Amino acid sequence: MKIRPFHLERYFAQHEFSARYLLSSSDCDGFSLSEILLMANPKEREQWNSLQLGYTESSGLPELREEIAKLYKGASPDDVFVLSPGEANFIAMNVLLQAGDHVICMAPAYQSLYEVARSVGTDLSFWNPVLNQAAWYYDPKELEKLITDRTKLIILNFPHNPTGYIPTKDDYYKIISIARARGIFIFADEMYHLLEHHPQDILPPMCEVYERSISLWGMAKTFALAGLRLGWVVCKDTAVMEQMKRYKDYLTICNPSTSEVLALIALRNKHKLIEHNLKKIAANLQLFTKFCEQHSQHFQFAPTRAGSTAFVKWLGKEPSLAFSDKLVTNTGIMTLPAEMFDFGSSHFRIGFGRKNMHEPLEILSRYLRANY
């Protein structure tokens, strides 16, 4: 199997652990081990203290699958498969697709969502958004135009990384109707589920409302526990699930026992984690909106309604990659340019999940005034 380099991850590898400030991270500040263990009840604490570091059940810790199933209407633990999110995407694309199939993916997108599909030998089309005064919109009519007789899969990501877009419920069900009418499978990356900024915007997971779908979620974004490297898929198609489990035998085989127990504790305290992250995102969104108002000659931005990221238009003359490289060199601030998403050269991803966001914004403001 041949696959292109993962541009975004290579860019992060270059700067993430050397830059002083990360202004583009998609996750929130991670919780510490001690913070999670403080939430554990006596039984969970004993489960942690007596944990044996051996092999675990391939499908996931039964208690954890039961807890995950509670997050979905009509789901049972048998519908849940626990694995790392990146592994889930890799497996699903190889199970669902074969050379010659046609796939539609939202753009811009996290590269692995479409790159693995492309490496399988599929024909790829991108569902591009409309940008109206810095506000993003994905028109279901434009999605429908991309469908061919060979369309096997539609890849969605709501809330969307990097734009922060989330559709109305009306548009969401239009997308499902388009797929259902043709029997097209949907792979739904829902890693930012429950990070909608307003409760009325929360969408039902795809696996609850469409029978030919896989819903992907995990601990990294919503729960700020990326270091656990743990997620799951929920799917009602037993044949697809069985194929995915067989494929995992060639990859990680099973999950880290430590991560599974910590995830179990975290999910049983999910409201505390989510509330903490939403408050931070809301505060930073206000900060960044004010910053963009002060620098309207440099950035064009419409506040987002979901998730922990935004895709902000850069109004400077130089490409966003060139600006990002200079910025991290001269100020220690890392931004993520549009080139890392294969989406032109005039946008940046901004992340709202860091508690120190005011510090890099102050430095960036001075840098812009002095140099631009």
CATH architecture of the largest domain: 3-Layer(aba) Sandwich
Number of strands: 15
Q: What oligomeric state do the depicted chains represent?
A: single chain
Structural class: alpha/beta
How confident overall, as mean pLDDT? 97
Largest sheet: 7 strands, mixed
Summarize the amount of helix as a percent range: 40-55%
Radius of gyration equals 21 Å
Shape, per Cα inertia axes = globular
CATH topology of the largest domain: the name is: Aspartate Aminotransferase, domain 2
* Total number of helices: 14
Contiguous runs where pLDDT drops below 50 for at least 5 residues:
none
**What's the end-to-end separation, in Å?**
45 Å
How many domains?
2
Tell me the strand order in the biggest sheet: 2-10-9-8-7-3-4
Strand content: 15-25%
Q: What's the CATH H-level homologous superfamily of the largest domain?
A: Type I PLP-dependent aspartate aminotransferase-like (Major domain)
What is the C-level CATH assignment of the largest domain?
Answer: Alpha Beta
Please write the string of helix (H) and strand (E) elements: HEHHHEHEHEEEHEHEHEEHHHEEHEEEH
Explain what the structure shows.
Helix 9 links the parallel strand 8 and strand 9. The chain folds into 2 domains: 123 residues, Aspartate Aminotransferase, domain 1 (Alpha-Beta Complex), CATH 3.90.1150; 219 residues, Type I PLP-dependent aspartate aminotransferase-like (Major domain) (Aspartate Aminotransferase, domain 2). Helix 4 packs parallel to helix 11, helix 5 packs parallel to helix 6 and helix 5 packs across helix 10. The protein starts with 6 loop residues before the first helix and ends with a helix. The model has no long low-confidence stretch (mean pLDDT 97). The relative contact order is 0.17. The strands form 4 sheets. The chain has a 7-stranded mixed β-sheet, sandwiched between helices. Strands 11-12-15-14 form a 4-stranded antiparallel β-sheet. With 372 residues, it is of the alpha/beta class. It has 14 helices and 15 strands.
